[in-house]
Amino acid sequence: MAAKTAGTGLEERWRDILSVHARTMCEIDRELHPHGLGASDFEVLDILAAEAPRAGDQCRVQNLVGRVHLSQSALSRLIGRLEKEGLVERSICAEDRRGVWVALTAKGRDLHTEVLPLQRAVLERMLAGAQGVFRS
Questions:
Q1: How confident is the model at residue 1 (pLDDT cuts 50, 70, 90)?
Q2: How many Å separate Cα 102 from the centre of its chain?
Q3: Ranges assigned E (strand) in the chain
Q4: Spatial separation of the C-alpha atoms in residues 96 and 76, rounded to whole Å
Q5: Helix, strand, coil: what percent of the chain each, to 5?
Q6: Distance CA 4, CA 20 (A)
Q7: Are 52 and 42 contacting, i.e. CB atoms less than 8 angstroms apart?
């Protein structure tokens, strides 16, 4: 009986974490929608801004795959959409023709800078209210 209770508690904590994640992603989507971005779009821009902080810096798409919670094909489509919007540029890696580089454009950097405080405010608000979920 104790094992079932412990397992049930663990299961409930896991579902609570998933719930916080889902609510937070929805709130980020809602907050960034007027700027033409969703939560996953922002996540890619944010990682690129951190990984390639200066104009002209690039990041391999493969480095994004494990950090953005999307399949490789969904990430590729997202990057394609960001490229069409002029927020990122893609190029082929000269050393490895299978590799693809992605970089923020000036427009992408400006938009990231503009919406960063909005996304961080959502995280602050949503995660502050969920502190108990992350404690064991």
A1: very low
A2: 15
A3: 59-60, 88-92, 100-104
A4: 18
A5: 70, 10, 25
A6: 24
A7: no
pTM of the model: 0.85
Give tens-digit pLDDT for 81-119. 999 999 999 998 777 767 889 999 999 999 999 999 999
Identify the sign of the CA torsion 36, 40, 41, 45: positive
Residue 2 has pLDDT above 80, yes or no: no
Q: Which two tokens stand for residue 64?
A: 């994004």
Amino acid at 13: R
Whose structure tokens read 């795959």?
Answer: 65
Q: List Cα–Cα distances, 82 to 28, 36, 72, 103, 120, in angstroms.
A: 17, 10, 15, 11, 21
CA distance readout (Å), 117 to 32, 46, 93, 122:
11, 12, 33, 9
